[in-house]
Design a protein that fits this description.
93 residues; 0% strand
Length: 93
């Protein structure tokens, strides 16, 4: 039970750190070029080169549009909140 809490806590910290780094990179790029770079979940999936991602764009275009509309930093914060909730739930069991 203690290991589950530790893993969830590390995932929460990684999500917060990832969101901060993503937002910081976007801010630095904006200051250099005066154009805010768009980083979405779709961009991250393209970067990871997920094979199933290529099929999603053709079979479910609305899902592709939804993932393209969600900013990566917001998704990472959501992942951190979910991991924190799991860590708190695991600590209370």
């Amino acid at each position: 039970m203690r290991i589950r809490t530790l893993i969830a806590g590390i995932a929460a910290l990684a999500g917060i750190a990832g969101a901060a780094i993503t937002f910081l990179w976007q801010g630095i790029t904006y200051l250099q070029s005066s154009a805010w770079p768009k980083l979405s979940l779709a961009t991250a999936l393209r970067w990871l080169d997920a094979r199933s991602w290529a099929r999603l764009a053709h079979t479910w275009p609305d899902g592709h549009a939804l993932l393209d509309a969600i900013p990566l930093s917001i998704a990472l914060v959501g992942l951190a909140v979910l991991a924190f909730a799991v860590a708190r739930w695991g600590a209370n069991r």
